[in-house]
Amino acid sequence: MKKNILTICFYFPVFCNAVEFNTDVLGIEERGNVDLSVFSKKDYILPGKYILSIKVNKNIIPEQAVYFFRRNNEEDSAEACFTPEIVRRMGLKEKIQSEMSSWHGGECANVTQLNGAIVSHVINEGFIQLSIPQAWMEYSDPNWVPPSFWDNGVPALLLDYNLNVSSTKPVNKDQIIQADIYGTAGMNAGPWRLRADFQGQKSSGGRTGNFDWSRYYAYRALPSYGANFTVGENYLNSFLFDPFRYTGAAIESDDRMLPASLQGYAPEIRGIAKTNARVTVSQNSYVLYETTVAAGPFNIQDLNSGVRGKLDVRVEEQDGSVQAFQVSTAAVPYLTRPGRVRYKVSGGKLSTNQHDLDGPAFTSGEFSYGIDNSWSVFGGAVLAEKYNAQAVGIGRDLYQFGAVSLDVSRSMAYLPDHSDAQGYSVRVNYAKRFDDQNSEITFAGYRFSDREFMSMDDFISAGKIGMVGKNNKEMYTVTANKSFADLNLSAYLSYNHQTFWSGKKTEQISFSASKIFDLESIKGISANLAVEKKLDQEERSNSVLLSLSVPFGRGRSISYSGQQYEDKKYNTISYGDYQNASNTWQLTAGARETDQGNTELLRGYYSHSGDAGVLNLNASYERGEYSAVSASVRGGLTITEQGLALHKQNVSGGTRLMLDTSSLGGVPINGGQTHSNVWGKAVVGDINSYYRTSTTVDVNQLGDDAEAIAPVVDATLTEGAVGYRKFLLVQGSKLMAVLSFANGSHPPFGAAIADATGREVGLVGEQGAAYLTGVQPGGYFDVVWSSKKCRINIPLTINAEKTLALLCLSE
User: Which stretches make up the PapC N-terminal domain (predicted)?
Assistant: First the structure.
């Protein structure tokens, strides 16, 4: 019985409390050469410094140096010392922190004094686990990571880019080669993010070219205020007033710091491309987003949630034609949690895209206050020399009937002709989710502005050209979607109508529907209909597209598309291969019908998503019209003290996580979506700020000579941060060895064997026998027992199939 207990404790010491061993039951020859002190205490740990992360319930304090000390006598297992800085980041209530006792001369907080608190040391996997009852914690939302666990990341340099090159040869015309690039360069230092946006273009046909650093700015999170601070060149971010460019500073509440239920939305853009096309989204001539899409309907949903105001959308087709339209982004009614204030304060001077100060100095502020569960009030003002505007509004939660808000704005301007202009603008917003009908009106709004109402841009234009431009008169917008679960059918509708006092009018309506169905043995057939109509004084257009896609084996499909764009009709058949998510392609053949006859066309599309970025290739040919090829590369470069890596990145200058695979290259991460480079570094881009992100090593794809001790890491990063996490991986051979001293004796039975990182990898058995893992030629292991230690050096040449005789040298 006693031997069975010893066996359990030997292999599973976590289940054993303090025990004394009867070594007579051990079947070993040298009973006097035994050191089982490591098993005499539960979770026995030697004093020292360990690099560990700290898990507090579900949240994680990033990896750092943690010291272990013995509390009482020399035989006790060492305990983790939680310094005041570590305790501050645990998310405990302030009163609990102030009342907590300490030990080791006041350096270490006595966390275990909290009733119900449990500390578990999982050093071999690189962390300490704390289980603390929620009663002692400041925050109680299990799905939200509180600010005390947010990570500002490490110092870093970054360069994100999107490069596009195209060549178009119209029939009987000169070839046009065009290249354009945009992106962000930046540097991170502590909580600060320094950024410089750039964009450039070069065209052979027009012999024009330019490259501009379009914006310089810096920002940081202010967690204590639930806000961000920005300084430099910026655009006014407002729910109440139209945006304009300025140079100055701003402090703004950031909804992303709130639980998900209190956050805003990111606008989406829908349209129809009649060929393979490039879609560019910009605001005030500044490129926000650019991508390449295949012919057919497209839907852009990954814009930054902070985008506000009107967006300019440009669709450049490979046949040379261009579609251009505007999208008015909007937010659901401005409601705020009871007792909470959301605010935005800005100040500075208006500036141009050429970095010149051009316009009056101004101050701006707005707020929203939650009166109770149903009512919120909000308002704001923009104040400048010879111009000011004020707004006040109220929001109401109608519960099962949705939410609505009403606000009134007034502007007053002193014009160059010495006249005064005073006008009003009224706006109503409505939003409602119909859960029972599985449908949603994501936004419905109406705004009316009288003739004398002026935005800041209107005022500046009046000062430059001596007259007011086409100021807004009336605008209403509806965006709705509906799903029919029983029919596997979904529908989407968007309608935007806008008029101006100058007499001009713009109107756009988009409708799309999609259905998935089965036809006998063919599963997952999809049918899509998309209709788009634009009507304004300069341009009128209609687009209708009907497509049918039939799966053809796993990850492949054959599809038909019929499209009408103005007086042109397209009928095409495509074959697509999507078996490998990293390499997808599509071939299309068809004809274009016109009054003059039919024209054959061919198209090809290829996309490669690699570790270093995303490559898209397009080719189009239309007989008697044009031929075109294009390529785009999108990605990023991130450099830190720990290393560098090229990687995929959609959001320029955005949050990312650098991963260290312990100098092992080619390690698959997140199911093989990326791999570590030759230096053992990889970067996962487009991380959601302020939300916990888990990243994993795909252990099923690791080589036989590699082992993942801790294959999962977590991080919660502030906006723009470059996080750093290290996977605990071991690469090397697995072999049997016999350890001995120079005099022929052996280290004691039960002595611990640790690798170069201090991780315990094995124990010394009878007659010095040991099983070693992660053995690297030329490496070493330390053998530790009681207060003694010796080192074994691995030869440069080893044979894993033979037992290795190793000399243990005292240090």
Answer: 20-164
